[in-house]
Amino acid sequence: MAVTASTSTEDLGKSSVGKLLAQYSIPAIIASVATSLYNIIDSIFIGRGVGPMAIAGLAITFPLMNLVAAFCMLIAAGGATISSIFLGQKNYSRATDVVNNVFSLCLIHSIVFGGLTLIFLDPILLFFGATEETIDYAREFMQVILLGTPLGFVFIGLNNLMRATGYPRKAMISALISVIVNLICAPIFIFVLDWGIRGAACATVVGQFSAFVWVLSHFLSRKSSIHFKRHNKWLTWSIIKRIYAIGLSPFLMNVCACVVVIFINRALLDYGGADGNLAVGAYGILNRTTMFFVMIVFGVTQGMQPILGYNIGANNFDRVKRVLRLGIWIGVAITVVGWIVSEGFPDVVSALFTTDETLVGIARDGFRIYFICYPVVGCQIVIQNFFQSVGKPQMSIFLSLTRQLLFLIPFLIIFPRLWGVPGVWASMAGSDIIAFVVTVVTLWWWMGHTMKKMELNARNS
């Protein structure tokens, strides 16, 4: 049953915060878990169907995949937040303008970014740490992914808008469609058709195409509360500027992640000796594992976003605080589970991806060190995304840059020189705990100063 504009907006401002968070977060979490499971299962298919060097080749593509995500989320996150704020202000025409602009920007970004990256793909991969043993795998995978960027960008951009405009279940279904089609196609393409790592990429693009059709049909339907309207604005500088301003936080976060992964890969190659490529593969296993739990937390923050955006727009500050508190508790609980799994059963997790004993051993050390401070990560993610959701991107950007640029990269330069490969894992753990402290202090300051001023201005207006 479709959610009407009136019910979706009124519920965001009146219903129980816990009920709303469950209503919006559970579908987002299911979609995030499904996507993470696909990434994990896809890596398992690649590791067992192609080999350990293919996992290393896949890890080499992580910086480039982060760049792809950066240019996509620049639009998707900004558009979702702005549309929620417009709905809170009962401005449905401007919310429709946002949908039109997001669609146009997704196409432009994907074509320009995907085309340029394809032209310079080999030099980019070599810069990211590819070796003679891994570049063929990385190239085969990314060529297909880049050709499919228009489908992926539009799917992700519109799916974020679908959730933000009152259709969390339909947004969940679109993500599930992508994942299920992926999981059906991947073993066929890899094992039956013997397409290797290129088959895994083809399965990803086919899944995105299926979800693209579903999401596009939603916004073409007049039954949807917010949908494409030919006479509304498609490229409007005032809207584009706000999309970029709010989307700049996740954009920079992904760009920084790209830079960080380059440092990680190069440190592992430099200090891993003869097993350098396998150390990169071990990081690939750790990355897939940590992203599983991080994506669940992101599901929570995606559920928080329309509630926070609407209530900030409507000046319901008490509800904003309640949503934030509940989100922090849930986020921490999720990463505590990740800590228990990774610290308690590292060999079990690694054995899912590979039977190579050397690779399992390197990954075991990584799990034990990398995840030691993992419980605080959930809190840091929720607070960082809180600032983005309430239209304060500069705070979110600050928190993202401090963790990845001010703390992690210096650690990656210093610690491996002292302790080798274990120093790489220690760098990530150390940056997590310092970033947590900075994030909590920043939130305390913002609540005590900026939000109090906002509350005072709302009472006096």
Question: TL;DR?
Answer:
With 461 residues, the chain is mainly alpha-helical. It is 86% helix and 0% strand.
Report on the structure:
This protein has one domain (5-460). The longest helix has 38 residues, at 276-313. The chain starts with a helix and ends with a helix. The protein has helices at 5-14, 17-49, 52-60, 62-88, 92-119, 121-127, 135-147, 149-164, 168-192, 196-220, 237-271, 276-313, 317-344, 346-353, 357-370, 377-389, 393-419, 421-448, 450-460. With 461 residues, the protein is an all-alpha fold. Keywords: Antibiotic resistance, Cell membrane, Membrane, Transmembrane, Transmembrane helix, Transport. GO terms for molecular function: antiporter activity; xenobiotic transmembrane transporter activity.
